[in-house]
Amino acid sequence: MIVLKPEDVEARRGRDHVAEIATAEEWPVDLDDVRVVTAELINNAIGHADTDQIRVEAYSDQDESEGLYVVEVWDADGMNRPRQQCLSLEGEHGRGLHLVAALAHAWGVQVGRDSQTNDNDSGKIVFARWLVKRK
Questions:
Q1: What is the pLDDT of residues 64-86, one digit of tens each?
Q2: Residue/partner pairs of 59-65 with CB below 8 Å, 24 or more apart
Q3: What does pTM read for this prediction?
Q4: Cβ atoms of residues 71 and 38 within 8 Å
Q5: Residue 29 CA to chain centroid, in angstroms?
Q6: For all residues of the chain together, what is the average pLDDT?
Q7: In 10 A of CB 48, how many CB atoms?
Q8: Domains by residue range for the chain, with CATH
């Protein structure tokens, strides 16, 4: 896990951290997709969450038949949930979660969980998942 400040320059650090984990663990998913999804989730927290820190975690859970590969981004603002916005040609924002939905197999939000302790708190975890079936 890496702890980031809610500042624009931190998104790259978080993205690179997750890419290192995915590479070291040899995730069988497109590394560029993982990088884009991670950056979008972090940038969403930076731009919209009322928080003094952002925690980013990446992990996998595998068995003989499939592997689950997960990126989680925690912030302290459980009241402000991310939602996909309607797309428009003129809009400058609102495309990030559409990218996440297109590149990951699933994404979602868990409100009221601390990413370190799994205890109840006022924050949220926004996650993206890739499920890979083994032959």
A1: 778 999 999 999 998 877 766 66
A2: 59/21, 60/25, 60/27, 64/134, 65/133, 65/134
A3: 0.85
A4: yes
A5: 15
A6: 87
A7: 16
A8: 2-133 (3.30.565.10)
